[in-house]
Amino acid sequence: MKNSTDEDLKILSMRVYKKYLKNKTCIPKDYIELSEIDDKKSGFYSKLFYKDNKLFIIFRGTDDFKDVTENDINLGLKQMPTQIINARQVYNNLKKD
């Protein structure tokens, strides 16, 4: 089986941004999309993919003005943004399973 390539991971990363979601960018061969988390309140967004017995958690970074005002500023003020708490929950939930 073919290993994950940088190009595959680039495409998966693009799949979580709004402008690419609308374009329905293809998922690389042999990857299976397992789940999506879209927290409209915090702006957190992630997708989980599977290939070759490996899980890939893809997180969306700053994608709109709300991310800047409600999350990025908190980082600058050394406060824990809600999106980081959300990301930790996604990881911890997978780690339990």
Q: Mind explaining what this structure looks like?
A:
The chain is an alpha+beta fold and 97 residues long. It is 43% helix and 23% strand. The protein is built from four helices and three strands, in the order ααβββαα. It has a three-stranded antiparallel beta sheet with strand order 1-2-3, covered by helices on one side. It is globular, with a radius of gyration of 14 Å. The chain starts with 5 loop residues before the first helix and ends with a helix. The relative contact order is 0.15.
Question: Layout of SSEs?
Answer:
Elements: H1 6-14, H2 18-23, E1 32-39, E2 44-51, E3 54-59, H3 65-76, H4 82-96
Antiparallel strand pairs: 1-2, 2-3
Mean pLDDT: 84
Radius of gyration: 14 Å
Strand residue content = 15-25%
Oligomer: single chain
Shape: globular
Query: Whole-Å distance between the termini?
Result: 25 Å
Spatially, the strands of the biggest sheet line up as: 1-2-3
How many distinct helices?
4
Helix/strand order, N-terminal first: HHEEEHH
Major sheet summary line: 3 strands, antiparallel
Secondary-structure class = alpha+beta
Strand count: 3
Keywords:
97 residues; alpha+beta; 3-stranded antiparallel β-sheet; 4 helices; globular
Short characterization:
The protein contains 4 helices and 3 strands, in the order ααβββαα. It is α+β, with helices and mostly antiparallel strands.
